[in-house]
Amino acid sequence: MAKSTRSTPTSKTNKPAPLEGNKEWRKRGRVRHVGPTLGEKTWWENLPAWGRHAISLGFLLIVALGFTAPATFGGKKLAGDDTVRWRATAEALLDWEETGGKRALWTPNVFAGMPAYLIHDTAGPPSVDSIPSALRKVGLWPLAHLVVLLFGAYALVVFLTRTPLAGVIGAVGYGLSTYLPIILVAGHNSKFIALAWAPWLLLAFGALIRRPAGSGWQLAALLTGLFAIAAAVNLRAGHVQITYYVVIIAAIWWVAEGIADVKTGQLKAYGLSTLFLLAGSVLALLMVAHPYLVQWEYKAFTTRSAGPGGGLAWQYAMNWSQGVGETLTLLVSGAYGGASPTYWGPKVFTSGPHYVGPVVLFLAVLGIAGVARRSVFAFTGAGVLTILFALGENFSLLNRPAFELLPLFSSFRVPETWLAATALLLALLSGWGAYYVQRREATPEAETRKRRTALATAGAFAVILGLLAVAGPSLLSLEKEGEGVQIEQMAAQQGLDTQDPAVRQQIGQILSQTRSERAEMLTGDAWRALLLLAFALTLVAARLWGKIPSWAALTGLALLVTIDLWGVGRRYFNEDVDALRRRSDLAVAVPEGDADRFIEERVIEAGGPGTFRVLPPNPSQNAYSSAFYESVGGYHGAKLALIQDYFDRLLPDDSTGLNETAIDLLAARYVVLPGGALPSTTPLFQDPATGLVVAENPDALPRAFLVQDAEVIEDDPAMIARIRSGEVDLRQTALLHEPLPDGFALAGGRMPLAPAADSLLADSLAVDTAMDSLGARPLAPGVSLVRFSPDEIVWTVAADAPSLLVVNEIYYPAGWTATVDSREAPIVRANYLLRGVPLPEGRHVVTMRFRPESHKQGVTIAWIATLLTYLGVIALSGLLWYRRGHGTED
Question: Which residue windows does the record flag with biased composition (Polar residues) (predicted)?
Answer without folding.
Answer: 1-14
